[in-house]
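Protein folds are increasingly written down as discrete tokens. With that in mind, we are printing a sequence and the tokens encoding its fold.
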Amino acid sequence: MDLSDDLLCLFSGEIDSRDGSYAIEIPEREVELGELEPGVSYRIALVPQTRMQTDWDTNADEEVTRVTTESTPPVTEGDHRTVEIETIGDQGDGIARVERGYVVIVPDTDPHERVEIEITSVAETVAFAEVVERCEYQE
């Protein structure tokens, strides 16, 4: 599945029934990361969860199924992205997050700096990148 570069967040959730309508709860961390704001309307897309493996059997008393979903990094080597450095890691490198909260380590950057990066190395849970250009914020 192709994901748009305009994607602000991606998370798993359930649809809940509430007083004659339905609701999807957005995890607090998605708002805290600064991409979403309370009280603003957003367009959403719903995608069925991919069932790769069922670890528990259905019990007659309660239906509990644990599902493991396929997890592939949202970036590949050579990708160019514009990101905001959120914080500095233990080794002094900048840390940015892209889709699904995936971490990208960017050396020689400062918190809240906006940079265009090129992905140089990709692992399952983290990628490494180099700064291509330092961007100015548009007010």
Summary: DSSP finds one helix and ten strands in the chain. Residues 28-32 form the longest helix (5 residues).
